[in-house]
Amino acid sequence: MAIEIPFEAREGVVIDPAPTVRTCVKHFGLKEWGTWIGSAVGSYGYGYYFQQIRPRRIVAPITVGSLTIGLLGGFQLAFTMSFSKLMGYTNKDWIYDKPTMPSTYVLPESYKKVAEAKLAAQAAAKGL
């Protein structure tokens, strides 16, 4: 069963409506490369730190295992960011009025229409 997302939810420009893995990796930006490499380095450092408290015979499996987990997890995050960028989705779903007050936000127009329709239906159901 496929998940269908309405086109009005997209805020950016649709570069590729059905990107492949090759296309996503080809369009990696600095943010995606930094996410991938940073998570790999961070998890390798985590594994190297914890290999100091283990017996010496399992040093290599711990560090290599943590590096592998970091590489795979980082690639998954970077791929998801690149995929959403190519599909036209951005992370600006909630645009804050003031950075100091995250509880106040401005909804995009597509969400405003849905929210107004729901509020009108609730008011009609209550008889207001």
Largest sheet: 2 strands, antiparallel
- Roughly what percent helix? 55-70%
Mean pLDDT: 76
Provide a count of the helices: 4
Q: What Rg is obtained from the alpha carbons, in whole angstroms?
A: 22 Å
Strand content: under 5%
According to DSSP, the number of beta strands is 2
- Indicate the overall shape: elongated
Structural class: mainly alpha
Uncertain runs: 93-104
| Largest sheet, spatial ordering of strands | 1-2
What string gives the helices and strands in order? HHHEEH
Question: How far apart, in Å, are the first and last alpha carbons?
Answer: 40 Å
Task: Give a verbal description of the structure.
This protein has 128 residues and is mostly helical. 59% of the residues lie in helices and 3% in strands. A two-stranded antiparallel sheet has the order 1-2. Strand 1 and strand 2 (105-106) form a beta hairpin. Helix 2 packs antiparallel against helix 3 (59-87). The longest helix has 29 residues, at 59-87. The protein starts with 20 loop residues before the first helix and ends with a helix.
